[in-house]
Design a protein that fits this description.
single chain; about 280 residues; alpha+beta; Immunoglobulin-like; five-stranded mixed beta sheet; four-stranded mixed beta sheet; 5 helices
């Protein structure tokens, strides 16, 4: 009886795992691979060098406001696949959702469908999106939303996924089949990198402050939004900005902020405007 009972357990287990493999799991048979769009934002490690996780994004903001004299910029869309890599090129389909886009192709942006190819022996590639510095970007924000479409090689995947690969962390829900680019020539507060760090030296963010700092240090707005402005250089940058503002004030040509007030930093980098009171 005991041996029969063991045999029953074994057969039950086989049936259970067979049912799971047929009904619960998605596998790739090599004929179609999953495809998705994903931008890696940042990766982090602790003091012991232990990997903590990577965060992702399904959109990006770009501003020409501090980009110098360029007339266009390139934003890469990173395309990744699930499933097998193969030894031949495979085209994929990337389209623009015009109902969710305000940017006009050929006027504000463009891309080459011929670049929509997953190269042989690769698990990811990039499609360059060209943004044009059109005159109306100084007064308006534009948006273009891309989406993937199935073809004979790929099926779009990750309609919803978490914005981090850390199992223990909670995060926002992203979409792997779509990607949005928002762009303009209007500077906006880059958020955390200024509010948590640069505000200690320069106070509240303004577009004019950031523009001057970028000119002094050779930074760009994307350096701020991408968290690439070195924290160790912020105090030096504030000193240089204060020096510029003080020299202008002493020369009788004080630099104004966008609201018409004298551009001011916070102590100990405060500019002396007592001659104008």
């Amino acid at each position: 009886m005991k041996s029969l009972r063991y045999l029953f357990y074994i057969l039950t287990g086989i049936c259970f795992f067979t049912a799971c493999s047929e009904e619960s799991f998605t596998t790739f048979n090599g004929e179609l691979s999953g495809i998705y769009i994903q931008r890696n934002v940042s990766s982090s490690m602790n003091n012991d060098g232990y990997y903590l996780g990577t965060t992702y994004a399904d959109s990006v903001n770009y501003s020409f406001a501090s980009a110098g004299d360029i007339t266009q910029a390139t934003v890469p869309l990173t395309i990744k696949i699930m499933g097998n890599i193969v030894d031949y090129d495979r085209p994929f389909v990337l389209k623009v959702d015009e109902s969710k886009s305000t940017a006009i192709r050929g006027t504000h942006f463009d891309y080459d469908e011929n670049a929509c190819v997953m190269p042989a022996n690769a698990a990811q590639t990039t499609v360059p999106i060209t943004l044009f510095r059109h005159a109306d970007l100084t007064t308006a924000y534009y948006r273009v939303e891309f989406f993937l479409e199935a073809n004979e090689f790929f099926t779009p995947e990750l309609e919803q996924y978490k914005n981090t690969d850390s199992w223990t962390a909670t995060g926002d829900t992203l979409c792997g089949t779509r990607y949005a680019i928002r762009f303009s020539e209007i500077l906006t507060n880059p958020g955390m990198w200024w509010d948590l760090y640069m505000a200690e030296y320069c106070g509240e963010w303004t577009a004019n402050k950031e523009t001057l700092l970028n000119q002094i240090m050779g930074w760009t707005h994307s350096d701020w939004t991408g968290w690439r402005v070195p924290y160790g250089q912020m105090a030096f940058a504030a000193k240089q900005l204060r020096k510029m503002l003080q020299e202008a004030a002493d020369a009788g040509t004080p630099i104004l902020d966008a609201d018409g007030s004298y551009m001011q930093l916070i102590p100990p980098y405060e500019v002396d405007y007592s001659a104008y009171n």
